[in-house]
From TrEMBL:
Signal peptide: none annotated. The record marks 163 as: Important for catalysis. The keyword Oxidoreductase applies. Residues 1-25 are annotated as: Disordered. This is Glutamate dehydrogenase. One of its GO terms (molecular function) is glutamate dehydrogenase (NAD+) activity. Homohexamer. PANTHER family: GLUTAMATE DEHYDROGENASE, GLUTAMATE DEHYDROGENASE 1, MITOCHONDRIAL. It comes from the Archaea. The keyword Chaperone does not apply.
Length: 432
């Protein structure tokens, strides 16, 4: 366990000098101190929030299919639990690091708070390439990792979820290994499970749905009619395809969608249902397209709204000047670097931040957890209705700060989150 974090810098210094190689952890800590200053957050609370509560590093030995033993490294970072149990994904990725887990766990704390969900932030992962694991190896790795972190996860303490390289089946193995260890079936230990063991309706499509809801709210706010709004979406996976299809359904013109291979561009509007999502057929977005552009050309398109929904750090100091869209809605986690964000702010291009826009995922995870605790499943109508209500409430809270303080949408979302966390610290105090 450790708690070293980078030094804090002031807003101007960090924005002027930062470049795109700035670490994700430094970015999150800088954002925290910048926003804390604006709302006079107690410096003692800022100090506590600048450090994760705990970071666990474990070794995960497994038997490979050829009989050899390989030892992987796994992490679980638990950032803050002042508002409730830790919550956050588990990713399998060869390049995952301790600091990345800490940074992502902090972002989860803010995301839960902006949605007013009674959870704190966590993130974990194993340094493994899921493409190099057979299904049996994936299962062995998951069960052993669960065993190694078994003492620190649980329905009332820390609740993992799927993330890069993990899926509903991975969650089923975690749930089974944990339940076997504690001698009792505990569906609430993870979210994003298969329906047969306590998963929720609507969980899969929830992040894309929330991106579409926030995009629609933003269009309304700026007095745009969705019917006259052109949108380009980067990434046509779980988040991007769902968001694009809903916005298409609500009348917007989705003129470009992309995957790693390229951009499908149809200025008159794409029939998004006819384009296979990543899940339906991986990397087939440009198959049979009349006009295909290089992946990086997506940002140069003359559209009203841009939805980066693929991976992090794609809008950088290098390409931010190519962007001509009037509004950005972040579907992916951290698609905009800190330096690019500052330039977008200078150029008056509003950015609806990830911690609000894609928070539908953790919100429906919270609904799943409630259903597991109560052993009572909700209908998909109920899930979607409650998600819509939660997203609209969060939008209203963020919009109020945006208008009253004349800050960016990102800062407004952070202000909502940090005010709630600060109030919880005020009430609880520090003990022992
Ligand atoms: P996914 O794997 O289902 O789809 C990713 C898509 O992005 C694919 O179409 C892929 O081809 C495309 N892509 C990857 N690299 C690209 C590149 N360099 N240029 C263009 N396209 C590229 O992933 P997902 O679950 O939709 O997640 C997308 C993002 O949303 C990630 O940042 C993820 O962390 C975030 N997110 C996901 C969830 C969730 O529950 N799925 C929730 C919140 C946030």
């Amino acid at each position: 366990m450790s708690s070293d974090t980078p030094p804090q810098t002031d807003r101007t210094e960090s924005r002027d000098q930062s470049d795109d190689s700035e670490s994700a952890l430094q970015t999150v800590v800088d954002q925290l101190s910048e926003v804390a200053e604006q709302i006079d957050l107690d410096p003692n609370v800022v100090e506590r929030l600048s450090h994760p509560n705990s970071v666990y590093e474990v070794t995960v030995p497994i038997e490979r299919d050829d009989g050899s033993i390989e030892v992987f490294t796994g992490y679980r970072a638990q950032h803050d639990s002042v508002r409730g149990p830790y919550k956050g994904g588990v990713r399998y990725n060869p390049s995952i690091t301790r600091d990345e887990c800490v940074a992502l766990s902090m972002a989860m704390t803010w995301k839960c708070a902006v949605m007013d969900i009674p959870f704190g932030g966590a993130k974990g992962g194993v340094q493994a390439n899921p493409k190099e694991l057979s299904e049996r190896e994936h299962e062995r790795l998951t069960r052993r990792f669960t065993h190694e972190i078994g003492d620190i996860i649980g329905p009332m303490t820390d609740i993992p979820a799927p993330d890069m390289g993990t899926d509903a089946q991975t969650m089923a193995w975690i749930m089974d290994a944990y339940s076997t260890n504690v001698g009792e079936t505990k569906p609430g230990v993870v979210t994003g499970k298969p329906m047969s063991i306590g998963g929720s309706e609507g969980r899969e499509g929830a992040p894309g749905r929330s991106v579409a809801l926030i995009a629609r709210k933003a269009a309304e706010y700026y007095d745009w009619s969705l019917d006259d709004t052109t949108i380009a979406v980067q990434g046509f996976g779980s988040v991007g395809a769902k968001a694009a299809r809903l916005l298409d359904d609500w009348g917007a013109d989705i003129v470009a969608v992309s995957d790693v291979k390229g951009v499908r561009y149809e200025p008159d509007g794409i029939d998004t249902m006819a384009v296979p999502s990543f899940e339906e057929e991986p990397e087939a977005v440009t198959d049979d397209a009349d006009e295909v552009l290089a992946p990086e050309q997506l940002f140069e398109l003359d559209v009203d709204m841009l939805v980066p929904a693929a991976i992090g750090n794609v809008i950088t100091k290098q390409n931010v000047h190519d962007i001509t869209a009037d509004l950005i809605v972040e579907g992916a986690n951290g698609p905009t670097t800190h330096a690019a964000d500052a330039i977008l702010e200078e150029r008056d291009i509003p950015v609806l931040p990830d911690i609000l826009a894609n928070a539908g995922g953790v919100t429906v995870s919270y609904f799943e957890w409630l259903q597991d605790i109560n052993r009572r499943a909700w209908s998909s109508e109920r899930v979607n209705n409650e998600l819509d209500q939660e997203m609209h409430a969060a939008w209203d809270d963020v919009r109020t700060e945006f208008e009253q303080r004349s800050v960016s949408w990102r800062d407004a979302a952070y202000i909502v989150a940090l005010s709630r966390i600060g109030a919880a610290y005020d009430a609880r105090g520090l003990w022992p």
